[in-house]
Design goal:
Strand content: 15-25%
CATH topology of the largest domain: 2-enoyl-CoA Hydratase, Chain A, domain 1
Order of helices and strands: EEEHEEEEEHEEHEEHHHEHEHHHH
Number of domains: 2
Mean pLDDT: 94
Bound molecules: ligand LW2Y6JES
Low-confidence stretches: 1-11
Number of helices: 11
Shape: globular
Radius of gyration: 21 Å
Number of strands: 14
CATH architecture of the largest domain: Alpha-Beta Complex
CATH class of the largest domain: Alpha Beta
Helix content: 25-40%
Structural class: alpha/beta
Length: about 300
């Protein structure tokens, strides 16, 4: 565990324990909190503690909007993704998956009664956003909530964290990242056990199978996330961005290659060679690449 940070009063409580950052809240959301610090760290929290932070279509729309805002903010390098807690009954959750009470024929019904599966868009956004996303898991990360946690770059678990799948019990399954990425992370045998048996796994079991990076006391969870974020933020943003794209490229086919290629193009635009091509077009002349070596 990294060195302790000096605690200061949080603007408002998302998780227990003092948070060393001062947050500015953004967005006008109902189911989500988005907070930005002046240290390059954002915090996105699902705010449905009485439902163990289960997501309904509105929650997913708001999460997508919050992650998109963070994506467009060049001052932010790390996102802490968590769930508000405790609930009035003392229970904690990162996210208990899709809200079963709004599930109708064909999916989860939004406020107009239209079935939506937009959590899959959110999964891809978390995976492709060129910032480091750290899951802070207190309590349950179950079903689609476990998959959202899985798709974060890093995961820190509180001692009370519980992970698991329920799909085959509640008539659902995630045959996308929820299977393939899980198998990459914990291995084929364990991934099949998780889905076929629908057991629950505590924080230390999750650590042993490589599902989380570290287990910390509940009151230390948010601080630990900030410490990890601060370490990351000392490093080269370009290197971290390219590394994230590279980790995805291995598994995400052409979409993964596209992400990595986008980073390469971004770097190329900054070179004299790249600029000469553009300049020549603007000046209506042939480009002169004669000074560029064929390395
Ligand atoms: C999470 C629990 C283990 C917590 O247990 P406990 O601490 O005892 O609390 P409870 O008393 O059970 O719950 C408190 C309160 O919260 C409500 N609640 C909890 N989870 C949900 C939920 N998922 N939906 C709706 N409501 C929920 C609960 O009813 C209580 O409220 P009351 O008013 O007091 O009744 C336990 O709660 C639990 O097991 N929850 C269910 C977990 C679950 O099965 N989740 C759904 C899995 S399926 C999924 O997530 C779909 C994913 C998805 O969207 C998807 C992804 C990819 C492809 C396809 C799909 C797809 O659309 O299917």
């Amino acid at each position: 565990m990294a060195a302790a940070v000096e605690p200061t009063e949080p603007k408002r409580l998302v998780l227990p324990g003092n948070c060393p950052l001062v947050w500015q809240s953004q967005g006008n959301y109902q189911d989500v909190w988005l907070d930005i610090s002046d240290e390059g760290i954002a915090r996105i929290a699902i705010n449905r503690p009485e439902k163990r932070n289960a997501f309904r279509p509105r929650t997913v729309v708001e999460l997508y909007d919050a992650f998109s805002r963070v994506r467009e903010n060049p001052a932010i390098g790390v996102v802490l993704f968590t769930g508000v807690g405790p609930a009035a009954d003392g229970g904690y959750a990162f996210c208990a998956g899709g809200d079963q009470s709004v599930r109708g024929d064909g999916g989860y019904l939004d406020e107009e009664g239209v079935p939506r599966l937009n959590v899959l868009d959110l999964q891809r956004l978390i995976r492709s956003i060129p910032k480091v996303v750290i899951a802070l898991v207190a309590g349950y990360a179950i079903g689609g909530g476990q998959v959202l946690h899985l798709l974060c770059d890093l995961s820190l678990a509180a001692e009370n964290a519980q992970f698991g799948q329920t799909g085959p019990r509640v008539g659902s399954f995630d045959a996308g990242f929820g299977c393939s990425h899980l198998a990459r992370v914990v291995g084929q045998r364990k991934a099949r056990e998780i889905w076929f048996l629908c057991r629950r796994y505590n924080a230390h079991q999750a650590l042993a199978m490589g599902l989380v990076n570290e287990v910390v006391p509940l009151f230390q969870l948010q601080n630990e996330g900030v410490l990890w974020a601060r370490e990351i933020l000392q490093h080269s943003p370009t290197a971290i961005r390219c590394l994230k794209a590279a980790f995805n490229a291995e598994t995400d086919g052409m979409a993964g290659l596209q992400e990595l290629a986008g980073q390469a193009t971004h770097l190329f635009y900054k070179t004299e060679e790249g600029k000469e091509g553009q300049q020549a077009f603007i000046e209506k002349r042939n480009p002169d690449f004669s000074q560029v070596p064929w390395l």
